Amino acid sequence: MMAAGPEALVTLSLSKRRRDERHSRSRFDKVSVPAAPPSASSGQALGKLRAGLRQAQRDKLSVETIKSVRKAPRFADTQIEMAHGAGGTASRRLVEGLIGPYFANPTLQAFADAASVMVNGTQIATTADGFVVKPLRFPGGSIGELAVNGTLNDLAVSAAKPLVLMATLILEAGLPASTLESEIEAMAIAARKSGVSIVGGDTKVVEHGKADGMYVTTFGIGIADGRANLDPASIRPGDRILLSGPIGAHGITILLARGELDIEADLISDTRPVWPFVEALLERVAPAIRWMRDPTRGGVATSLNELVRGSDYGVALFEESVPMHDAVRGACELLGLDPLHIANEGQFLAVIAPDRADEALAAVRGVPGGEGATFIGEVRAEPKRRVIGVNGFGGTRVIDMLVGDPLPRIC
Amino acid sequence: MEVCGGHTHSIYRHGLRDVLPENLELVHGPGCPVCVLPTGRVDDGLSIASHDDVILTCFGDMMRVPGTKGTPLELKARGADIRMVYSPLDALRLAEQNPTKRVVFYAIGFETTAPSTALTILRAQALGITNFSVFCNHVTIVPAMRAILDSPDMRIDGFVGPGHVSTVTGCRPFEFVVRDYGRPVVVSGFEPLDIMEGILMILRQLHAGEAKVENQYKRIVPWEGNPPALRAMAAVFELRPYFEWRGLGFISQSALALKPELAAFDAEAIFEIPGVRVTDPRGAQCGEVLKGVLKPQQCKLFGTECNPEHPIGALMVSSEGACAAYYRYALHAETVAT
Question: Which pTM does this prediction carry?
Answer without folding.
Answer: 0.78
